[in-house]
Amino acid sequence: MAIASDTQPQEKASTEVSGEEKKRWTLNDFDIGKPLGRGKFGHVYLAREKRSNHIVALKVLFKSQLQQSQVEHQLRREVEIQSHLRHPNILRLYGYFYDQKRVYLILEYAAKGELYKELQKCKYFSERRAATYVASLARALIYCHGKHVIHRDIKPENLLIGAQGELKIADFGWSVHTFNRRQTMCGTLDYLPPEMVESVEHDASVDIWSLGVLCYEFLYGVPPFEAKEHSDTYRRIVQVDLKFPPKPIVSSAAKDLISQMLVKDSAERLPLHKLLDHPWIVQNADPSGIFRG
Ligand code: AMP
């Protein structure tokens, strides 16, 4: 692949072309194609790097909006973390550059788009599909945790699907590189574990909790602690008020796995490597990590 890079956020748009000289990208290096979507801070376009013909997704963020929302620091951290991760289930960030008004992120293109939309379309996933995604995410999170990166914001909106149907974690906006236990409030309430809702110290096991919430949502179509009022969601999370509705029908093996992940005491949550050996995963997940429909 022609675009292989390590970005250094302190420098201006530093990107390496594999084995060659350091490359400083500009907009002229790309042919811009169709819009892929719109985010809070800008737009995402399909693009082709002219020299290599490599297809990428170019995310264009407006500096003014980033400044207004005071998220420059968060973006810097996201770029720094994501550009150093290499895993088939983590969206690559090849590099970045900027001009006076905009910041451009050169991202791996996820041809099948947002997982969130798929889930809306299907309402809920089959056990085979859910298990395949959960196993892929567990592998990606094991990789992240091995590099002392905690994601802290695993939810359907942050997941994309690649051309082969493989899942890609796409948003590292709330992730941290850490050796210590953290004590900051972040993420969306529905996916937050008790220790983050209560703002006590937390560590990599927050991602096990979120993966449990996600597994539930894949199988039931709604997150487990959903409630009309924020305060009720808060209470349900803190009390781990976990209920399995009769419909859709979900196997007891799947419920067993979810119950072992959604545990209040973070030290008691099923470790991710053990999750991969759980009978529900072993029996349902496609070993290739690809859901073929
Ligand atoms: P975001 O600003 O990250 O929320 O992106 C806005 C929308 O653009 C997303 O909801 C996706 O539909 C689309 N998108 C973002 N990144 C990619 C990508 N790497 N590949 C394909 N589509 C993307």
TrEMBL record:
Cell compartments where the protein resides: Cytoplasm, Cytoskeleton, Spindle pole; Nucleus membrane
Region Disordered, residue ranges: 1-20
Stretches assigned to the Protein kinase domain: 30-281
A GO CC term assigned to this protein in UniProt: nucleus
Residue spans of biased composition, Polar residues class: 1-17
Entry annotation: catalytic residues: 153 (proton acceptor)
GO biological process terms held by the UniProt record: mitotic spindle organization; regulation of cytokinesis
Matches recorded under Gene3D superfamilies: Phosphorylase Kinase, domain 1 (3.30.200.20), Transferase(Phosphotransferase) domain 1 (1.10.510.10)
Keyword Lipid metabolism: no
GO molecular function per UniProt: ATP binding; histone H3S10 kinase activity
Coiled-coil annotated spans: none
Catalytic activity from the UniProt record: L-threonyl-[protein] + ATP = O-phospho-L-threonyl-[protein] + ADP + H(+); L-seryl-[protein] + ATP = O-phospho-L-seryl-[protein] + ADP + H(+)
Pfam families: Pkinase
Record EC number: 2.7.11.1
UniProt binding sites for ATP: 40, 59, 108-110, 157-158, 171
Cross-link (Glycyl lysine isopeptide (Lys-Gly) (interchain with G-Cter in SUMO2)): 155
Alphabetically ordered keywords of this record: ATP-binding, Cytoplasm, Cytoskeleton, Kinase, Membrane, Nucleotide-binding, Nucleus, Phosphoprotein, Serine/threonine-protein kinase, Transferase
Domain of life of the organism encoding this protein: Eukaryota
The protein's enzyme class: transferase
Family: Belongs to the protein kinase superfamily. Ser/Thr protein kinase family. Aurora subfamily.
Name listed for the protein in its UniProt record: Aurora kinase
Originating organism: Populus trichocarpa (Western balsam poplar)
